[in-house]
Amino acid sequence: MIFTLLYIPLIVIGCYYFPVSTVGISLVTVGFGRVILLAYRHGERKNFISPVFLGLLGMGAWISEDFIALKLYPLLLSLLFLFYFIGSVVRKRYLLIEWVEKFKKRPLESSERRDVIVSHWFWIGVLGLNSSIHLYLVLKENTFLWALYSFAGWYLLFGMAMVLQFLFAYRIQVGQWIRNLWGYGLFVGVIVIGFIPAIGGYFFKVIMRESKPHILFQRVTAMIFRVFFRYAPGIGGIDLQVNPKYNPGDHYIYIANHESWLDYPLMGGYITDLFHLTNKKSPFVWFFRPIARLLGVIDGVGINVLHLLLQKLRNRSNVLIFPEGSRSVDGALLPFKKGAFSLAIESGVPIVPIVISGTRHLVPKGSISWKKVKEIGIKIRIMEPMTIQEGEDAQGYKQRIWESMRENKEELDLS
Q1: Fewer CB atoms near the end CB (10 Å): N or C, the chain?
Q2: Average pLDDT, the chain
Q3: Predicted confidence band at 285 (pLDDT cuts at 50, 70, 90)?
Q4: Residue 117 maps to a domain
Q5: CA 73 centroid distance within chain
Q6: Domain boundary residue among 48, 66, 84?
Q7: Total structural domains in the chain?
Q8: Can you spell out the DSSP letters for 260-276?
Q9: Helix H or strand E segment including 254
Q10: Which residue has the higher pLDDT, 257 or 9?
């Protein structure tokens, strides 16, 4: 094995100082000497192949005094492996299946066998390409190129083939990495690019002493979020349906069903002057917290938070609440908590129900990975503003809106 690796430099250096015939007789001595030693030690048959090739080629170089005989060694070894792989196909005893089963220490399943058979044909193609390159360089009168490829070039070829084999064997995992890199990379990228002018606009409004400087920031980020949803993996478009009785110029308490973390930027892409709750205490690390504040994120639970939201509503800002309190795994609408409805009754601000369909197919609850799906159309339905009716209590108000959202959700899921 070591001599095989050193064959090219030894041959090139030897032929530089000595005649080809002298190098040839040296190979005859080394090759057939190795055969005799293996025979004495009762070596395996496969170990005789390389030294026999070496001895025969040395004899050819000795007799013909032509360097081309010495150039044939890498080509013959490549052809040997090529015919060995082809022969295993003819015999229907795929070498790679045997090797993989020995490695896994179990029989392969049918899907695994199909993949290994595809890989077997792939390596036949690689060996065929390698043999063709060797043959071309043997016939070409350029010793440097032959030596360069025979010593190091084929390592590059087989290294690239190994990378392709790895990508094929782990194509599901690699596809997942690519989707995650695409999705989260795009999200971070548009934020980094878009937040610079957004923050600049915010400080300009602060200098101008406007009462709500965060609105400009949220308008810019709304455009950023819409760009993200346009190019994010698996999203085939957004279908926004707006009830004609809804007036975006008024201020409301928005409540939406919750399927994925994508619902937050999705709502931020269409509603501004917005404040919304997260039920996770201190979910943002320190360097994201100022940006989260500008986006209207209020973290925490309890009566103090509701008082803060009540102040925002009295200042004619919008509030967004996901009343289910958690993400739905299967898309079915979960029971509502009472906070949003108590807030609506106390403030007198109408509730605008929003139904979202589709985001759970992309990044569902319990996962941070983008799922492999055909293009999903995300549907958003902004419903008619709803107020508490005469004689209706908070529980009835909540149940009426829940029933209305459930019907609309089922309709969107089926459309």
Answers
A1: N
A2: 84
A3: very low
A4: no
A5: 43
A6: 66
A7: 2
A8: STTHHHHHHTT--SEEE
A9: strand 253-256
A10: 257
Q: Token pair for residue 142?
A: 């350029």
Q: Say if 188 falls within a structural domain.
A: no
Compute how many other C-beta atoms are within 10 angstroms of the C-beta atom of residue 35.
18
Identify the three-state secondary structure at position 11: helix
What does DSSP assign to residue 241?
A: E
Last residue of a domain, one of 39, 66, 93: 66
Q: For the chain, how big is the Rg over CA atoms in Å?
A: 36
Q: Residue 350: give its domain's CATH number.
A: 3.40.1130.10
Percent of residues in the chain assigned helix, strand, coil, to nearest 5: 60, 10, 30
User: Does any domain span residue 20?
Assistant: yes
Q: H helices within 91-213, ranges in order? A: 95-104, 110-139, 143-148, 154-169, 171-207
- DSSP-derived secondary structure for 167-190: HHHTHHHHHHHHHHHHHHHHHHHH
Domain-embedded: residue 93:
no
Region 310-336 average pLDDT: 89
User: Facing residues of 253 across strands?
Assistant: 319, 351
- Has residue 54 got a pLDDT over 70? yes
What range defines the domain where residue 36 resides? 1-66
CB atoms within 10 A of CB 319: 29
Q: How far apart are CA 289 and CA 179, in angstroms?
A: 27
**In percent, how much of the chain has pLDDT > 70?**
94
Residue 345: phi, psi to the nearest 5?
A: -65, -45
* pLDDT tens per residue across span 113-128: 888 888 889 999 999 9
Average pLDDT on 249-275 reads: 91
And the tokens for 73? 């060694």
Q: What is the DSSP letter of 371?
A: P
H or E segment at 283? none
Distance in angstroms between the alpha carbons of the first and the last residue of the chain: 66
Contact 309, 275 (CB under 8 A): yes
- Per-residue pLDDT, 2: 55
> What residues does 389 pair with on adjacent strands?
none
Cα angle: 239, vertex 245, 251; to 5 degrees: 90
Looking at residue 312, the DSSP 8-state letter turns out to be H
Ordered DSSP codes for 43-68: --THHHHHHHHHHHHHHHHHHH--TH
Question: In this predicted model, what pLDDT tens digit does every residue of 207-231 receive, in sequence order?
Answer: 877 778 888 888 888 888 999 999 9
Closest to 258 (Cα-Cα) out of 183, 173, 322, 339: 322
